[in-house]
Amino acid sequence: MPTDTPRIQAIRPQPAVATLQRLPYFVGISGQTVGAAGLSMHLVVIPPGARSQPHVHLGYETGIYVLEGRVLTRWGEHLEHEVVSTAGDFLFVPGGVPHEAVNLSDTEAARAIVARNDAAEQDKVAAYTPPVG
Questions:
Q1: 24-39: per-residue pLDDT in tens?
Q2: Which positions ≥6 away from 8 have C-beta within 8 Å?
Q3: Which of 42, 81, 115, 122 has the fewest CB atoms within 10 Å, i.e. is most exposed?
Q4: Which CATH architecture has domain 25-127?
Q5: Which of 51, 28, 30 is nearest to 101 (CA)?
Q6: What is the 3-state secondary structure (H, E, C) of 50-99?
Q7: CA 99 – CA 97 distance, rounded (Å)
Q8: What is the pLDDT of residues 58-80, one digit of tens each?
């Protein structure tokens, strides 16, 4: 089969990779893994009691499906808004919205599938520091 022919590919995530968000990511579908042009999809694990680095996604949307755990997502210019997601919930994060994720359990990891409409999304994540006051 010629290499430019579209094909279905199975991906088994390798060990977790470090991300700017400071959470373990298990890379699934991306431009690097399968040559995707407009989609990425990963598994993220938030260890017990852990939180992500506050950050913003530059120019893409994110859909999250929580598999296990309870996650508090703080969002907004001062991270002043909150939503709690539990197993079975979907969460939508628009591009450009500052946010952080916090595992509400001190004993169990939270796990979620993360899908984005950008195949190279980790190249477009920026750390965010809320303004003082």
A1: 778 889 888 899 999 9
A2: none
A3: 81
A4: Sandwich (2.60)
A5: 51
A6: CECCCEEECCCCEEEEEEECEEEEEECCCCCEEEEEECCCEEEECCCCCE
A7: 6
A8: 999 999 999 999 999 999 999 99
